[in-house]
Amino acid sequence: GGQPRNVQPFSDEDASIETMSHCSGFSDPASFTEDGPEVDEEATQEDLEYKLKGFIDLTLDKSAKTRQGALESLKSAFTSKILYEFVMERRMTLTDSIERCIKKGKSDEQCAAAGLACLLCVQMGSGIESEEIFKTLGPVLKKIVCDGTASIQARQACATCLGVCCFIVTDDITELCSTMECLENIFTKAYPRDRDTNGVSSTHNTVLHISALLAWTLLLTICPINEVKKKIEMHLHKLPSLLSCDDLHMRIAAGETLALLFELARETDADFFYEDMELLTEKLRALATDGNKHRAKVDKRKQRSVFRDVLRAIEERDFPTEMVKFGPERMYIDCWVKKQTYDTFKEILGSGMQFHLQSNDFLRNVFELGPPVMLDAAALKTMKISRFERHLYNSAAFKARTKARSKCRDKRADVGEFF
User: Residue 330 pairs with which residues in a beta bridge?
Assistant: First the structure.
């Protein structure tokens, strides 16, 4: 009758075994073996649920380390699997555990609990049950976000969680506006004051400001047109000041938000005109060609890549389309709104993003992918490749990659041959 303290942490092995029972796990042809042993799906599912029940019980443990470990294990499971029925039956228990950990836990535990709250809503999708979860957790998250005595990491995690959960569950415009105002109160503190108009210096709160800005931008993508216009009028002239911030991630977040604002503004008003366009494009062009020696090469490369796209979007109204592959399907990211949404959920789901794109009804609705694709036995057979074929392919790819890198690294190589 005691708590199952000896439950083993959720592992990648658990994910790989159980995933075989889902049609969506068939994204990687290399994951199949010609003569693999049959898996007892029912027994595997029972074993998985037993473990998860143990983790839920351990979120109430007296030890903070044990609680955090249980939260992290639940996060791993929710990232790599679709557990809708299991979660539906235990949603209130999970909500109570998350609420308790956010209220009473220390920084790391609060971050883990906020991350689990995001994944809980991703699992549940939009619906009445998810609204109940957000009604319970929303006020708690807002309190931590606005609490100056809480750790920056906890406030940052709660700001992200607040934006994502509101995006998933909220149909109420009043709640949406309230949440956006809460986030605005945070990231607007990064705007330079009248006494300091030369630039914006990084502070220890910058990571919080970035998370609040990105969460706010995500919510802006689902706002009604009238609200979008109000927000654009309020922030479009102030956001460019953040491009002078010392922090690379703040500069990138501000640049991508500006690109998204311009995209929304032009969709709502074909004759949209921005007065300071020349000054803004000059600043963006400087960031897109930045060669300051005091900045790391990796940072400069990333900054130039992002701001070339931002400048192109604002000057030419163009977006560099990206393609995302998952299993037999393809998805094209062809606008800043879609990119912002995809980047947010990719950050939350990590390596489980492709699996959820294949199997999660909510995410498929968000990206207009339709119902999950079911693969029959014939289709699966065509996707199988032998171990020998995989070996040949990997060897060829490795040789080609090594050859290409050697050319780039050879200082004596003729630069002209690359053009």
Answer: 325
Q: Identify the burial level of 67 via C-beta atoms within 10 angstroms of its C-beta, where 0-12 means exposed, 13-18 middle and 19 or more buried.
A: buried
Residue type, 411: K
| Amino acid identity, position 247 | D
Long-range contacts (CB closer than 8 Å, 24 or more residues apart) made by 387-392: 387/33, 390/30
DSSP SS3 for 353: helix
Token representation of residue 318: 């163009």
* Cβ–Cβ under 8 Å, residues 315 and 348: no
Residue 61: Cβ within 10 Å count:
15
Largest Cα–Cα separation, the chain? 74
Which two tokens mark 135? 């009604």
Q: How far apart are CA 74 and CA 112, in angstroms?
A: 10
Residue type, 119: L
Segment 315-335, tens digit of pLDDT: 999 998 999 999 889 999 999
Which pTM does this prediction carry?
0.80
pLDDT in tens, 41-90: 778 888 899 999 999 999 999 999 999 999 999 999 999 999 999 999 99
Is-contact 130 84, C-beta < 8 A? no
Provide the H-helix boundaries in 59-205. 64-80, 84-89, 91-104, 107-124, 128-146, 152-169, 173-187
Q: Judge contact between 363 and 9, C-beta under 8 A.
A: no
DSSP line for 105-135 = S-HHHHHHHHHHHHHHHHHH-SSHHHHHHHH
CA dihedral (376, 29, 385, 370) in degrees, to 10, reads 40
- Specify the pLDDT at position 108: 95
| 274: its two tokens | 């921005």
DSSP 8-state symbol, 25: G
Residues paired with residue 332 on neighbouring β-strands, in sequence order: 323
